[in-house]
Design goal:
Blueprint (H helix, E strand, L loop, with lengths): L2 E4 L2 E4 L3 E2 L10 H13 L4 E3 L8 H10 L8 E6 L9 H12 L6 E4 L7 H14 L5 E4 L3 H9 L9 E4 L11 H7 L4 E4 L3 H4 L9 H10 L3 H9 L5 E3 L6 H9 L7 H10 L13
Parallel strand pairs: 3-4, 4-5, 5-6, 6-7, 7-8, 8-9, 9-10
Antiparallel strand pairs: 1-2
Pfam families: Aldo_ket_red (PF00248)
GO molecular function, one term: oxidoreductase activity
Protein name: Aldo/keto reductase
């Protein structure tokens, strides 16, 4: 399975996203089973946030992971902009840890930029890291100018990841963000890597070339889309599913390698950007 290194730790390049999970009590057992299946299939990274269901996703994750050895897991959560201040972040983190039933996070991300000065947020993230309650911190929904601003701060280069939207139908980050992150050895986390199951009109799963490649590899179209996202070795994808079967397929996509010719076919269908694009955000 392909691996990505974050903060010195190697983790499988397909993790588990949890946006929209925990919202429907009738699906709770199914969602818990899906998360546990993902870990059993080899995933280590679970990505969540205090925003997701106003804490309900973290609570679900905490229940799902309770029987699993914490040392096997790489747990990511995120702080909301309105909580990213010196006054509020520590309490926000404590609430997340309580819901997740753990005493530390492997990675704590600033979910997106708000009105709190970036320097204040970074200093508080750094302080929380020194406290041991987070092993590392990073950012999310940062564009190239945000990253450059971050790197100018005294502790800004202590960030260990940036998480942005990225999939075959949304390649804008390839123009500036991904090259900059590679130059600065900052790993990239791709959220919505299969375009939310095509619900946003990208038509990836119904594209003839994607379907043809899936048939040739005897895999699903979503496995092709995931293999494409993690093709270069420094991108971690965090697809979300509440289905055990789909979860197993997602994790198995970490074993799939597309050939240069196959990648070229996909480039023809979904061209790489030739100029700076606005950052896609969901």
């Amino acid at each position: 399975m392909k691996q990505v290194t974050i903060n010195g730790q190697q983790v499988p390049a397909i993790g588990i996203g949890t946006w929209h999970m925990g919202d429907r009590p009738a699906q709770r057992e199914t969602e818990i089973a899906a998360i546990q299946a993902g870990i059993a299939a080899g995933a280590r990274v679970i990505d969540t946030a205090e925003m997701y269901g106003s804490g309900r996703a973290e609570d679900l994750v905490g229940e799902a992971l309770a029987p699993i050895d914490r040392q096997q897991l790489y747990l990511i959560s995120k702080v909301l902009p309105e909580n990213a201040s010196r006054q509020r972040m520590a309490a926000s983190l404590e609430a997340s840890l309580k819901r997740l039933r753990t005493d530390y996070l492997d990675l704590y991300l600033y979910h997106w930029r708000g009105s709190v000065p970036l320097a204040e947020t970074v200093d508080e993230l750094q302080r929380l890291q020194q406290s041991g309650k987070i092993r590392a911190w990073g950012v999310s929904n940062f564009d190239i100018d945000d990253l450059k601003e971050l790197w100018q701060l005294p502790n800004g280069a202590q960030a260990v990841a940036n998480e942005d939207l990225y999939h075959l139908g949304s390649r804008g980050v390839e123009y500036a963000v991904l090259p900059w992150q590679r130059e600065h050895q900052l790993p990239f986390i791709a959220y919505s890597p299969i375009a939310q199951g095509d619900s946003w009109g990208h038509h990836l799963a119904t594209n003839d070339v994607v379907k043809q490649l899936a048939a040739q590899h005897h895999v699903t179209v979503y496995q092709i889309l995931l293999a494409w996202v993690i093709r270069q070795g420094d991108v971690l994808a965090i697809p979300q599913t509440s289905s055990v079967a789909h979860m197993n397929e997602n994790i198995a996509a970490g074993e799939l390698t597309l050939t240069p010719a196959e990648l070229a076919l996909l480039d023809q269908q979904f061209p790489a950007p030739t100029s700076k694009q606005p950052l896609d955000i969901l």
